[in-house]
Amino acid sequence: MRFKYISAICSIFTAIGLNAMTASTDTVLHATGVDVLISENAEGLRIETSDSSSAATFTEVFPENATISSEQHFRKPFIGLWGNKHISWDVITSNVLAGFVNAAGAPGEIDFEQGKSYEISVLNAAAIRCSINSTHSSISAGIGISWRNYRTTTGMQLTHGNDGSVGYEPFPDDVSPRYSRLKVFSLSFPILFTQKFRIPHARHLCLQFGPVLNWNSHASLSSRWINSDGSKGKFSTNDVAARRFSVDIYGALELFQGIGLYVRYSPQSVLRASPALGDFKSLSTGIVLAL
Fold this sequence. Notes:
The protein is mainly beta and 291 residues long. The chain is built from no helices and 18 strands. The strands form 4 sheets. Strands 8-9-10-13-14-16-17-18 form an 8-stranded antiparallel beta barrel. The protein has a 4-stranded antiparallel sheet with strand order 2-3-4-5, with no helix packed on it. The chain is elongated, with a radius of gyration of 27 Å. It starts with a strand and ends with a strand.
């Protein structure tokens, strides 16, 4: 994942003799791939900047004799496809998630521990994004991967039925439990809407939300313990009846440049036929990088 940042330092404008400019004359400055258009009209000095792909623009009007000092940063897309001053299309890699996952609705006895259960995802390993420059908003559709690990270390072990169902029971009294976990791997297909806010002291503030379709291609469970003689015991299986398709509701808030918080909830049960686990749902929260 690679981002290029271009900085147009506008403080050089104060060195330009404004009186030498006329209403019909424009001056174009080139600053590391950024075009700066300066014109004078009845309102004062008008400054427009745009990058070569027109993916980012900045326009401002300053009164006559104003002192100008400004720095603008523009994020370049991973692969630019097409664009004009109104919209732009590009291919991006974004939304790297690292958080804790909670088994909402699971019985209290199994005690999936949120502090030890985690989610790692790249929602947009590759995505196509359409940006609307005038509203600072965009919509993207992509493909990614998600890995969720539900874990308990409180003395209960997950059990496996012949039909792929999952239940639970205490570890035997003559062993020392280590952990028991359920892991679900998914291919994710997010459709995300992003809105950036131009707030003076929070210029990176950005809201993102949308549905995520998951194809839960693999699920497994594993239990580990230590026998009374000191040897290590384990049980694992990949024959787990996970729900094949599910839909998540996703939302994120970017607080700093490229860093934010997210929440992700699935209103559907994780497993298909495991009533002993209460048909629990997935709820995860954490940090998102590269919105």
